[in-house]
Amino acid sequence: MGRSVREMGEWMESGWSWKWRWRRDLRESELQMLNELISVINKSIPLQGIPDSWKWGTIAEGRYTTKAAYEKLLSLKMGCNVVNMEKFEYGIKFLYQKCV
Fold first, then answer.
1. Which residue(s) pair with 29 in the sheet?
2. Could you say which residues of the chain have pLDDT below 50?
3. Whole-prediction pTM value?
4. What whole-number distance in Å separates Cα of residue 27 and Cα of residue 49?
5. Which residues does 20 contact at the CB level (< 8 Å), separation at least 6?
6. Residues pairing with 15 in the sheet
7. How far apart are CA 55 and CA 94, in angstroms?
């Protein structure tokens, strides 16, 4: 865990190429999630020669805060398919309280 972007791929003549490595073959549902992930991360191409860094994209400063994460999770519930919304909200509030 905790790998940097540069450890997950390499620069080729044609540009950046991801090098996925798994301990086992992925299940069909995991392959679907991987394809979704790839479609998201392919929108951001790594820059050659620039060190990896973390940036929280939900606020302008780019700093992660539990409050920003909590607000983002609450905003996501509007479009999600959660079977029990009450448990979902409880989980978010529980995580928020543990992190503050």
1. none
2. 100
3. 0.47
4. 35
5. 8, 34
6. 12
7. 24
